[in-house]
């Protein structure tokens, strides 16, 4: 059995979502034993950056041709199909990002492979690859059975690290690839929230919902997030109110996140929102309504007004940091 993980990069940085997929596969390989693991990153990324972020074992191929610096579906798809043939990969994994969701169906079609989207991967009791996907806003889970020789997966965000993988023994190789397509040239690149970490890249997220009350009250969340070294996100309700931009929206109609710590402030916990935070490692909920559904999935809950609780929480964080 062999695995190929597509490592997504933007502006020379490997995306957290795809690094998490790499480590998910690495943890499976620890159990399986004799399994070849390959990675592929397209674009100008420093070897040391990859080595510092991707632990475990295997080979990661880098395609540094200038044509791969900007995302081009045809270029990327051609390189991935070629790499799948070179490595004889039976299972190909993407992060469930916009790029992953765009590329995965193309790859599945070209390789005549099965496709499982937005799934959680792992091993069943017999040591076979198991993919579980959710439907109807996360209220129903389905086990995906692969009936073909190959399968392509877009993997839902999960917070993973290379802790417990032992010594880093990843070999990084310069690959060869050429983009022959001229039909997808980039006319203009637009960067939103320049200088601010993307919500999908942060290990700490402080998110607000309608219970925050106003756009002005989001300043409390911004201050708490800054003290923790995190960023601010929002529920759909807060975005619909015009309090936050759509790029901050978390949930089924927004973005899926997998932080190490997620603090939900004034968020009731609708199924559509919970579907977007399923990969969070630790969830803290702050809400005035003790019956709010968010408390059912939270690891820790605080019943109270966010205008009172959040400043106290920030003060406790600052006091703790001064003690270190």
From TrEMBL:
Binds 1 FAD per dimer. InterPro entries: DHS-like_NAD/FAD-binding_dom, ETF_a/b_N, ETF_a/FixB, ETF_asu_C, Rossmann-like_a/b/a_fold. Signal peptide: none annotated. One of its GO terms (biological process) is fatty acid beta-oxidation using acyl-CoA dehydrogenase. This is Electron transfer flavoprotein subunit alpha. Belongs to the ETF alpha-subunit/FixB family. SUPFAM superfamilies: Adenine nucleotide alpha hydrolases-like, DHS-like NAD/FAD-binding domain.
């Amino acid at each position: 059995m062999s695995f190929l993980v597509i490592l997504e990069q933007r502006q020379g940085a490997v995306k957290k979502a795809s690094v998490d997929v790499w480590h998910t596969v690495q943890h499976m390989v620890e159990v399986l034993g004799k399994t070849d693991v390959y990675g592929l990153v397209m674009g100008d990324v420093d070897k040391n950056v990859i080595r510092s972020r991707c632990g475990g074992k295997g080979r990661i191929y880098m395609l540094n041709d200038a044509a791969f610096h900007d995302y081009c579906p045809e270029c990327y798809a051609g390189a991935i199909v070629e790499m799948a043939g070179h490595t004889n990969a039976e299972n190909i994994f993407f992060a469930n990002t916009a790029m992953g969701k765009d590329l995965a169906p193309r790859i599945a079609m070209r390789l005549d492979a099965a496709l499982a989207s937005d799934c959680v991967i792992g091993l069943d009791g017999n040591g076979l690859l198991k993919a579980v996907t959710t439907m109807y806003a996360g209220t129903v889970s389905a086990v995906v059975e692969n009936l073909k020789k190959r399968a392509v997966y877009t993997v839902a965000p999960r917070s993973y690290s290379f802790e417990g993988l032992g010594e880093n023994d990843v070999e990084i190789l310069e690959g060869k690839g050429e983009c022959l397509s001229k039909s997808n040239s980039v006319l203009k690149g637009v960067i939103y929230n320049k200088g601010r970490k993307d919500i999908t890249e942060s290990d700490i997220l402080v998110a607000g919902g309608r219970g925050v009350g106003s756009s002005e009250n989001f300043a409390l969340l911004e201050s708490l997030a800054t003290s923790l070294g995190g960023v601010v996100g929002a529920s759909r309700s807060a975005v619909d109110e015009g309090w936050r931009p759509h790029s901050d929206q978390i949930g089924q109609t927004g973005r899926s996140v997998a932080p190490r710590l997620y603090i939900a402030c004034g968020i009731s916990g609708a199924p559509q929102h919970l579907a977007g935070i399923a990969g969070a490692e630790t969830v803290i909920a702050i809400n005035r309504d003790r019956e709010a559904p968010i408390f059912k999935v939270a690891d820790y809950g605080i019943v109270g007004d966010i205008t009172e609780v959040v400043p106290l929480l920030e003060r406790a964080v600052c006091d703790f940091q001064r003690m270190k």
